[in-house]
Amino acid sequence: MYPVSGAFMDAIESNTRKYYWTGTIVTKNKKEYAFGNEDIVKGSGYITRQCCGSNEIELGTVYAAEMGITLFSDIDRYTLDEAEVRIYFHLVLPDGTEETIPMGVFEVSEANRHIKTLELKAYDYMLRFEKALKLSASGGTTYSFLLMASTECNVELAQTKAEIEALMNGKETLGIYSDNDMESYRDLIFYVAQVLGCVCQINREGKLELIPYGISPVAEVTSRHRYDSSYSDFVTRYTAVSSTNLITEESEYYALDPDDALTLNLGVNPLLQFGLKTTRARLITNILNAIAVVDYVPLDSTTIGNPAFDPMDILRFSGGHADEKQLSCITSITYKIGGKHSLKCVGKNPKLAAAKSKNDKNITGLLNQIEAGKIVVYNFVNASPFTIGSSNTEIMAIAFTSKEETTATFLAEILFEVSNDEVIETVSGTVTEDSENEAGETVPITKEVSFTYPKIGESELTVTYKMNDEEVKTFYPKKTCINGKHILTLFLPITQVIANSENTLSVFFKMSGGTLTIGESQIRATISGQGLVAGIGDWNGRISISETIDRIPIAQTAFGYDAFTDTAAAIFPRLVLRPITQPLTRIPITESEFSYHRLNERVTAVEVIKTFTMDKDFPPHYDQTVVEVNEDGAFCMISDYVFVSSVEEINAGQMQHLTVNTEPFERVEKMEVTMC
What we know:
By secondary structure, this protein is mainly beta. Helices cover about 10% and strands about 40% of the residues. The strands form ten sheets. The protein has an eleven-stranded antiparallel β-sheet with strand order 2-1-5-6-7-4-3-21-22-18-13. Strands 23, 24, 26, 32, 34 and 35 form a six-stranded antiparallel β-sheet that branches. Strands 25, 29, 30, 31 and 33 form a five-stranded antiparallel β-sheet that branches.
C-alpha cells in the first residue's frame, strides 16, 4: 500500500469525496505535455496491475502493469513512441488541503489518433527487462544478480542490499551454469524472486521492487464500500512445494507436517540446480516457509476505490456475506479513472489436493526426459471424417518438439474410399446395309454412325507436405485411384530439426476426377526420432480452422467502349535569355582585435579493478556500495576525484607565457580495499 496519511484514509472512506486526476507526457526529445481531468475522455482511463495469473497463487512473477487513456489532445502521435506518461491522483481533504499520490510511470507502446482525441496504451518499466541475457555462467548473491539486471536494463532497484538480504534466502550465494533456459533479464529476475519467495513489481516511482506474501492487513473494506462481491467457500493454503532437479531428472517434494493443503510447483529453476544436496534442500525449504504464510480467501469485488491499494496488499472484508475473520490478498487490481475499482484474489481449493496421493504429487512437474538413444513417438488419429475434392484439404497436423538438433521420421497409413466421376465416351464407325436402287436392284450402302455411353473414369490423388507452414516443393506423392476402397501408406524423412524448437508437419490431399472420403479414426500417423521431447501431451490452446472455397466462375461479359475523342498540339515556348551583370568592388579586410574567454581545465582519473582475488582471510564477496560494474562489464571502485585549478585571465599578448596553476590536487575516496 502506498504510504498515505490518516486524513487521506478518513477522506477516502467517507460518504463523499472530492478528487481529480492529472498527468504528464514527456516525449523522447524531452518535450512535456500536461493534462488534467477536463482532458480525459470520461470512462476511458484505467490502470491494471497484477502479481498472479487468473487461477492460482504464484511466485517470482514479473507481470507488467498496463495503462490506457483517451485524451482530448492534438499531440502528434508520431512523437509519442516510447514517451513517458505519469499519472497522479489528487484528494481534497476536509481542511481544504490536497494530498497527491503517484499512480505509476508508463511508456507508450501504442498511440491512435481520432478526429478529436488521442488514444494511448502504455506499460510500466517491466518490459525493459525484455533484453537479451548474454550470461552463460555466473555466480553471486541474489542482490548482485538483481543489481546487474537493474543496471543493464536501466531500471532502478527500490530496495537496498540490506533489505534484499533480509528476505528469505537473501544471503545465499547462487550459481548459473551454461545449461539454462534464461533468455532475457526478465527470466533472470523471475528466478531470483522465486528463490527469495517474492513476486516482482514496478512500483509507482518506476523502480523494481520484490514483495513477499504477508499476513498483516493494511485496511478493512466494509460493505458500504462495495458494490458487489463474490467470496469462495474455501481458504487457499500451501503446505508443500515441488521442484525439478535437472541433474537427477526427477521432481523433489518438500512438505510441512501435516501436509493437508496445496502443492506449489516451482518447475525447473536454474538457480537451484547446482550445489550440495543439503544446500538445495535448505533453499527450497525456505521457499516453502515463505509460501506457507498464504492463508487467503479468493474473491472478486467491485469497490468505490482506494488508489493507495497495490497488488500484494492484505485486506480484511467485513459486513454482508464477508467473513471478517479471514484475510484476502490483492493479486489483481484495476483502477478506473473517475470510476469503480476492481479487486481480485485468486486461489485454488486445498480440498482438491486431499484426493491426490503423495505419489501423484511427485509425478506432477516431472521433467520432460530426454535420454541418449531414446526414441520418442508422437501419434495422430483423426477425430472427424473428411470429404476431399479438387481443392487442397488439410487432413492432419502433428506438432512435435525437439530438445536438440536431430532428425525424425513421419509414417502414416490411411484408409479411404474413392468415388470417380462419370465420363461420356463416344464411339464412331461405319455400317453397311442393303438397299434397293431405282431399278429395283439390291445394292450395299455404307453409313457413318456414332454412339455414346457413360464410363467410370480414374482419379488422381496428390499429397502435399508443409513443415511449419512452408510447402515441401521437392516431393509430391501421387496415386491413381479407381472406384472403391484403398489403403495409402505415406513416408517422409524430416531432416535438420533444429534444437529447442516446436515444429508442425501438415499433410494435404487433393483429388482430381473424383471424390475421396476418409472415415473417422481412419488415419493413423506417427512422428518419431531421437532427441524429441516426450510428455508434451497437453493442448497448447491453439484452435486451427480452415475453409476451402471452390473456384468461383465469372460469366462472360461483352466488352464495349464509348467513342474516343482526342486532340494534339505542339507548342514551342519562346526562350528569352537576359544577361545579368553585377559589379563587385574591392572588399577591404581590416585588422581585428583577437580575444578569447577564460580557460578552465579539469583533470579526471579513473581506476579499474581488472582482477579481484580472494583467499581464506577475506570473505568471498564485495560491498556493492563501493564496488560497481562499469559499462564494459569490469569491476571498478566507486570513487570521486576533485581537481581544483586557479582561474586566470589570459590576454593575447601573454600567450607565449601561458601557465596553468595545477595546485592543489585533491583526491577523495569512499573506500579502502585490501587485496591479496
